[in-house]
Design goal:
alpha+beta, Ribosomal Protein S5, domain 2, Alpha-Beta Plaits, 2 domains, four-stranded antiparallel beta sheet, 41% helix, globular
Amino acid sequence: MLLEKDVLVAAYQGRWGCPPKWVVRAPGRVNLIGEHTDYSDGFVLPLAINRAIWIALEPREDQQVVVHSVDFGETATIELATLARAQPSWQEYLKGVAWSLQEAGFRLKGWSGLLQGDVPLGAGLSSSAALEMATARAFAAASDLPWDPAGMARLGQRAENQWVGVNCGIMDQLISAVGRAEHAMLIDCRSLEAQPVPFPPGTAVVVLDTGTRRGLVDSAYNERRATVEAAARRFGVKALRDVSLARLNDEAASLDETTRRRARHVVSENQRTLDAAEAMRRGDAVTLGLLMNQSHASLRDDYEVSSDALDAMVQCALEQTGCYGARMTGAGFGGCAVALIDAQAAGEFGPAVAAGYQATTGHVPSVYVCRATEGAAAFAIPSPSGRGLG
C-alpha cells in the first residue's frame, strides 16, 4: 500500500500525543534511460515516482534530532554539535545531510520526527537519495531555510559521497528534488538544467523488481566510476560527456579493452538519452522502446553492471504483447528493471511478466505501474485549533 500524508500524521500523533508541525515527502525515482552517465557530466532521463520517503516532524529548541524509523523499528538521536560517523545504517544518511548543510554554512535547529517510506530498499529506485532529500526538506522546514532544489540536491550528493562513502552522481538527488508530475525530466548533469519531457500518449511505465539486491558501497560502482574518469583524463577532457562517438572510435586503440568498453557505454548512452527525449517529444513510443533495449545491451555487455536476474526480467518483459522496450535501471547488479508499455496492456502485463520471471529464476518479483510525481515538498499541518502552523 502506498503511503499517504494523513497516515503519517496519525502515526506521529499516536506516538507523541500531538500532531506534527510539518510533513515532508521526497520521492524515489526510476530512470528511463541514461544510466551511469551522471558522474560523467552526462544526460539522464528519470522520473520521480509515486513512492517516497516521508518524515513527520516538530522543531525542537535544542540541537538534537530524534527520529524514529517505522520501517526499521529503531530510534536515532543525533547531536548536531558533535556529528560522528558510525557503522553504516539509515541514520548515517541523516547525519550526512546535517553535516553537509552545516558545512555549507546553514544554522540548523533540532527536530523530532517519525520516518517511513514505501521506496523498496536496494532496488535501484534510489531510496537513499529520497531519504537525503526528505531529511534536507525536514531541516529546511524546522530551521526556516530557503529551499533551492538544485542546491539541496548538490548537498545531498555531497553527503552520500563524503559521509556515506558512495561516489554517486547528481541524478538521484536532483530528480527527487525537481520531479514534475506526468513528466520525465531530461537532466544535464553538468549545468543541472532540467527540462520536463512528456510521455508518449497511451503509454505507461512499469517497475519490475527482481527481488535481488546489491550493496552499493561494496559493489563495483566505485571501480566503474574510477575507470571512466581515467578515460576522460586520457582524452584530455573534464568528463566523457565531452567525447564524441567519432573521436572515441578513432582513438579506441589507445585504450585497454575494459576501459574502451566502459567509455563506449557512457558516450553512446549520452546520445541515446538525447535521442530518447526527442522521441518522447514526438510521441514516438516505438523509438523510445528501441533505445531502452539498446541501453540494456550496452549496460550488460560494455559496462557489465547487469545480472542474470535483471537480464531474465528484461527478456520476460520484452516477450509480452504491448511492451515497447525494457532495460535494467539503477546502479545494477540486482534491483529493478523498467519497461515502457501500452497502457491498455497494463492489466495483463504485470502478472504475465511476474509468472514468467518466477518460472525462469525462482525469485519472487514485484511489478507495479508507476506514476510520475512532483519532487520534494513540505506540508504545514494545522494545529488542533485549526490555526495553520509554519
